[in-house]
Amino acid sequence: MWFKIISYVIGALFLSKALIAIVYHTRFYAWLRRQCLSESFPPALAALVLDTAVLAVVTWYAAIFHYAPFGWFLTALMSLALAKALGAYCMWQTSSKFFVRILDASDAGLWALDFSLVLYGFAFFLLGHFVY
User: What pTM was computed for the model?
Assistant: First the structure.
């Protein structure tokens, strides 16, 4: 049950981010670019790191105390996501330049990113529904 709920939450987060990015495409990515150009780590992005940390801790709790077959898969994914988020936080000067290059690269690539997030969101819903 725990992994099902976690999968649904992650799927909802992916879909909500994709929906915002698709509906408010230009404004969203302009805002994100401004965040990435700041010298210090922006509070809005710090909230995303905190969300990732909370989900990773809850996933590890579920893996230890509420075992489910294939729960290791979600635990590994959340551990990798947390490592990536903490890496971006700790190396902000380097990672922010990388993010700005991605945002400036091509608009078609950003649209592809948005629609891939939709697919990831549905994949997590399917994972929660059929696996857990």
Answer: 0.91
Single out the residue of 29, 2, 47, 26 nearest to residue 99, CA to CA: 29
Q: Rg for the chain (alpha carbons), in Å?
A: 16
- Which tens digits make up the pLDDT trace of 79-117? 999 999 999 999 999 999 999 999 998 889 999 999 999
Q: Quick one: tokens of 2?
A: 């725990």
What's the residue count for the chain?
132
43-65 vs 2-23: helix crossing angle, rounded to 10: 160
- For residues 120 and 14, the answer to whether their CB atoms sit within 8 Å is yes
Nearest CA to 85 among 113, 127, 47?
Answer: 47
Local structure of residue 40 (DSSP, 8 states): S
Q: Which two tokens stand for residue 5?
A: 């709920």
pLDDT value of residue 106 = 84
Position 13 scores a pLDDT of 96
CA distance 57 to 116: 26
62 contacts: CB under 8 Å, gap ≥ 6: 2, 3, 6, 68, 71, 75
